[in-house]
Design brief:
The complex is a heterodimer of chains A (415) and B (604). Chain A is mostly helical and 415 residues long. Chain A has 2 domains: 311 residues, no CATH class; 90 residues, no CATH class. Helix content of chain A is 68%, strand content 3%. Chain A contains 16 helices and 3 strands. In chain A, strands 1-2-3 form a 3-stranded antiparallel β-sheet. Chain A is globular and about 70 Å long. The two termini of chain A are 19 Å apart. Chain B has 604 residues and is an alpha+beta fold. Helices cover 38% and strands 20% of the residues of chain B. Chain B has 21 helices and 20 strands. In chain B, strands 2, 3, 4, 5, 10 and 16 form a 6-stranded mixed β-sheet that branches. A 5-stranded antiparallel β-sheet of chain B has the order 12-11-20-19-18, sandwiched between helices. In chain B, strands 1-8-9 form a 3-stranded antiparallel β-sheet. In chain B, helix 10 runs antiparallel to helix 20. Chain B is elongated, with a radius of gyration of 34 Å. The chains are: A mainly alpha (415), B alpha+beta (604). Chains A and B meet through helix 8, helix 13, helix 14 and helix 15 of A and helix 1 and helix 2 of B.
Chain lengths: 415, 604
């Protein structure tokens, strides 16, 4: 593989700046959505989410400085140890863990709870980069994919056992890394396509899935219009997909036992909400939709303040921004994320050290999946899956994990 | 993979990031900018308009005594979804209901809405509210809403004051002011002055959270405004006089109406039997109303002063005297012979005396013979009119100009027109074959004549005013005591010239001095009166008396009718003169009169 010369050397201030902006916006959004209507407001009220987040931001700042002062090679050399440590930590949850919102995924340390799964993403990204970096020849590739796949699957299985399907789903983001590093494009498209069709069918209905499948089919037929054999192949895949679409719901209804159904539904947030179908989603859409173009103004949101939106300072933090800053605010957030993700991708792609590229792709993909799924669920494009919005959502584990994820990349990128 | 392929894959990944982000932005644009209904839904989610009910306007009498005021009452409200397990015993005891009833009401409220408050128990008294307040802390989902109830310090004038009740769907459709559960004036003053009394509702917009709990005011109360209490009214009624007059008729069926002639203001208006207006208030209203309505013997809800039609009897003779003078049929000096009655062929209208009285004498002695002859002559006047139809119609027009056979349509409820038949009616009735003798009993206020006590009192006011009246009404001022009710200030003149009233009034004075009403004359006040004994096909005659005083500067015109009480002079006249005296004389005399009345009542 060719080694390209990096044209962006040293410390990347753009990433640093984007990080700070997102964290600050996040803190204000948390403040707004958890401040309520009390008269005396102290931002250092550590019993309130905004006060606690203050601590997490401080911890993150210290951690980021530590990371930036460490030798970058530490992360390369200790990748597997970090990975193993995180797996052990996750397993220990089964013995030491406490349940929050039905997911047994937390370890309580004093007043605070940490969620090892958040850190496992970083560890997996590091381990995968190390693994690909150490890979030697193309001949070994077949085995290499199996091992790489297992490295992703192990944390997924552990997390699934903790009943935290949302967090497990995020590990699918490594498919972007695999694709970039030579996985068959067909598998990438079929895998991604099947997953999307499944979600659409299961969470919305057959018509959505069918129209999405048809649209994709037509696009591919046009792209491959010169290759008769491939057109036939695509048509066959399309017909199979249609068949599957119509089988998902009946299969779900007939084959599965009630308790299995229950489990799967809970997994996808179908029946968990107590106030009837789609209550949370509707409230979330109402909050964002009522923002208009410029929003109601800081602290003037009603929906996010009055508990209409569930989890409004954690997973639904975007509702607060959408309501108080309107489409303008949404656009700013989406733009910042797109900028951040593309910047990481760009730096990774250009870096002369392959390890950094592998790791960078994982970082970009993880942030991308979180961002797309989190905002998507608040506006009804993705079923409700409880994963945080990077840097913005309230929560120590999430903020610290994402800070480590990003700053390790910033540090590696300096090499 | 070569470099080119790697580069392509980089673009695919970046492309997916950009493509999805654009789709997401498009969706956001659709939700936030294009679709507008989310805004309304957000408001209906989080904003609750709370209506603050104004206090209904107070009603005072002409001497600033309170007739109607508001008393605090409390509705126990329930939001079913906020309900937690609670001990029903307290609730059952305080509200005096059983467990099943509690469950039934909760179910009913839940059916209406699990999230919105609905009335659990209406109009809880102050005492019960005290007990309830202690328990309320442990009754999640219950809260108390203030309500006001009408209250009457002295239970008088029930018919005229009227009552309030809950609005029905019809009223809500007609006037957007009203909402389900609001109160509205159903009858009497409450109905006629609803616009003034109801006030302006206040509004408070509060933020409520997902559990429907109040969480503060919206935009610091920028959209809130307090309720404005209803306008107070000053009634023309004299509460003490009203009470005195009502006591006078206790045990009788009948009516007393007194008017201040110069203004048309009603000083007292009694319909007996009456009822305590406090009965038609609050939780017991429905039950009490049914009881009053089912009392078919006494008919306490029936307003005899306005809705009942009576033959006026001899008091009607005054009208014919005036018309006779105006038409030139008689002069005060004209005499008609009376031989113990009016006799033409087989027709006889009896009279108590014989002679040839002039007008004064005829009024003084209430001579039937005189007034039959007079009436016969009025409708038989062929010099002026071609036929009886024309002559009768001319007479009828005079009568109508004196306020009969019509509704005044002022602020009084349930008026009836009374009856003075048209010439067409008699044409049909007698197939064109009728003359003055056919209908001669109308000359003495019998036969086809039917009037209301109010019309008679108004007629007395016309006589007192020597020719005009102002529509009788019960509200003299609105808002403040000096702000005279301008709806009823127009003088309505009758078709009788002023000069013709003098001899009639002279005759009425003689009634009191030496005529049929001499027993009831008042020392020190010049009273003009007229007795009547209205024949009544259903039983004993009605006792009737009409009067005004003082003659030279009239301040009160009274009409009294006591059903089935016999001669006017025996029952109605003393009532009328007592009312006049009570109204005109000083406090000491008032006390004496009250004592006399009590003696009279206990002697009955």
């Amino acid at each position: 593989m060719m080694e390209r010369k990096s044209n962006v050397k040293g410390f990347d201030t753009t990433l640093m700046m984007l990080y700070i902006i997102l964290v600050v916006i996040g803190w204000f959004a948390i403040f707004s959505s958890s401040v309520g209507h009390t008269q005396d407001i102290s931002i250092f009220d550590f019993s309130k989410p905004y006060g606690k987040q203050f601590i997490w931001i401080g911890v993150s700042a210290i951690l980021s400085i530590v990371i930036l002062t460490l030798d970058a090679r530490v992360f390369m050399n200790y990748a597997y140890y970090i990975y193993a440590f995180c797996l052990v930590l996750m397993l220990s949850v089964f013995f030491l863990g406490t349940s929050i919102n039905g997911a047994k995924a937390w370890i309580k340390i004093g007043q605070f709870s940490i969620q090892p799964a958040e850190f496992a993403k970083f560890a997996t990204a590091l381990a995968l980069a190390k693994f690909f970096n150490d890979g030697k020849t193309d001949k070994q590739r077949a085995n290499q994919w199996i091992v790489a796949g297992l490295m992703v699957l192990i944390p997924i299985v552990i997390i699934m056992l903790q009943h935290d399907a949302g967090s497990a789903l995020v590990y699918l983001s490594f498919i972007f890394l695999f694709y970039r590093e030579g996985m068959s494009g067909n598998i990438f498209i079929i895998g991604l396509g099947a997953f999307i069709l499944f979600l659409l069918t299961f969470c919305l209905n057959e018509i959505y899935a069918l129209s999405a499948a048809t649209a994709i089919y037509i696009i591919f037929m046009i792209i491959k219009r010169r290759d008769k054999r491939k057109m036939l192949k695509i048509t066959v895949i399309f017909l199979v997909a249609v068949g599957v679409i119509f089988m998902i719901n009946p299969a779900y209804e007939k084959i599965l036992e009630p308790h299995q159904k229950m489990r799967i539904s809970t997994l996808f947030g179908k029946t968990v909400d107590p106030q009837g179908a789609d209550f949370n989603l509707n409230q979330s859409k109402i909050a964002i939709g009522s923002g208009g173009f410029f929003g109601k103004g800081f602290l003037k949101g009603t929906q996010t303040k009055l508990d209409f939106v569930p989890e409004r300072h954690t997973d639904f933090i975007f509702c607060s921004i959408g309501e108080e800053f309107g489409f303008f605010g949404s656009m700013v957030i989406v733009s910042l994320f797109v900028w951040l993700i593309l910047r990481v991708l760009f730096l990774a792609e250009r870096h002369r050290i392959r390890f950094v590229r592998y790791y960078g792709y994982s970082v970009a993909s993880i942030m991308f999946v979180h961002f797309i799924v989190n905002i998507g669920m608040t506006i009804g494009l993705v079923p409700i899956i409880g994963i945080p919005l990077p840097f913005l959502s309230y929560g120590g584990s999430s903020l610290i994990a994402f800070t480590i994820l990003l700053f390790v990349f910033i540090r590696l990128n300096e090499m | 993979m070569d470099g080119l392929q790697e580069r392509r894959r980089y673009y695919v990944v970046a492309g997916i990031v950009i493509l999805l982000s654009v789709i997401w932005l498009a969706r956001l644009f659709f939700i936030q900018v294009i679709k507008t209904n989310y805004k309304d839904r957000a408001e209906s989610n989080a904003l609750r308009q709370i209506t603050m009910h104004p206090d209904r306007g107070l009603i005072y009498d002409r001497n600033d005594s309170l007739l109607v005021y508001n008393e605090a009452a409390y509705d126990l409200m329930l939001v079913p979804n906020e309900l937690r397990a609670f001990d029903t015993n307290d609730l059952c005891r305080i509200l005096d209901i059983d467990k099943q009833e509690v469950e039934r009401r909760i179910e009913k409220a839940r059916k209406y809405s699990p999230l919105l408050p609905s009335v659990f128990a209406q109009q809880i008294s102050k005492e019960d509210y005290g007990y309830l307040q202690e328990k309320l802390v442990r009754l999640n989902g219950f809260f108390v809403q203030n309500r006001t109830l009408r209250s009457y310090p002295v239970p008088v004038a029930a018919h005229i004051l009227g009552y309030v009740g809950e609005v029905n769907q019809d009223m809500i459709d007609k006037d957007s002011y009203y909402q389900m559960g609001d109160y509205i004036g159903i009858s009497g003053i409450e109905k006629a002055y609803e616009q003034e009394l109801r006030g302006e509702k206040g509004q408070r917009i509060v933020l409520v959270d997902v559990n429907n709990r109040e969480r503060g005011s919206y935009e610091n109360g920028a959209h809130d405004h307090p309720p404005v209490a209803g306008t107070p009214l000053w009634s023309s009624l004299d509460m003490r006089l009203q009470q005195f007059a009502e006591r006078q008729l206790e045990g009788y069926s009948g009516s007393v109406v007194a008017i201040e002639p110069a203004t048309g203001e009603i000083l007292c208006i009694v319909s007996s039997p009456s009822y305590d207006p406090n009965l038609l208030v609050g939780r017991a209203r429905g039950k009490n109303y049914m009881e009053l309505q089912n009392d078919t013997k006494k008919k306490p809800l029936f307003n005899r002063a306005l809705s009942a039609m009576y033959p006026p009897g001899s008091t009607f003779k005054l009208a014919n005297a005036l018309i006779g003078l105006q038409e030139g049929i008689i002069t005060p000096a004209t005499t008609y012979h009376c031989a113990k009655g009016y006799r033409v062929g087989s027709l006889t209208v009896g009279c108590h005396h014989a002679g040839s009285p002039d007008l004064y004498g005829a009024i003084q002695t209430s001579c039937n013979g005189y007034f039959c002859k007079l009436f016969y002559n009025i409708v038989s006047n062929r010099k002026k009119y071609k036929n009886i139809q024309e002559a009768y119609t001319a007479w009828r027009n005079y009568i109508m100009s004196l306020g009969f056979a019509q509704k005044f349509e002022s602020d009084l409820p349930y008026e009836t027109r009374g009856i003075i038949p048209s010439a067409d009616y008699f044409d049909k009735q007698y197939r064109g074959q009728w003359n003055g003798n056919t209908i001669v009993s109308m000359g003495i206020g019998q036969g086809e004549v039917a009037v209301t006590p109010l019309q008679m009192a108004n007629f007395l006011a016309i006589i007192a005013n020597r020719g005009y009246y102002i529509k009788p009404h019960v509200i003299r001022a609105i808002g403040s005591k000096d702000n005279i009710n301008e709806r009823y200030t127009e003088k309505i003149y009758c078709n009788i010239d002023e000069k013709y009233f003098t001899p009639v009034i002279e005759g009425m004075e003689r009634v009191m001095k030496s005529g049929t009403g001499w027993r009831s004359d008042i020392k020190g006040i010049r009273v003009a009166g007229k007795t009547g004994t209205a024949q009544n096909p259903h039983g004993r005659d009605h006792s009737v008396f009409a009067a005004f005083a003082p003659v030279d500067k009239p301040q009160i015109a009274v009409f009294v009718l006591v059903e089935n009480a016999g001669f006017g002079a025996t029952v109605a006249a003393p009532v009328a003169t007592s009312v006049i005296e009570y109204y005109l004389k000083d406090e000491n005399r008032k006390k004496e009169l009250e004592e006399e009345l009590e003696r009279k009542i206990s002697a009955r």
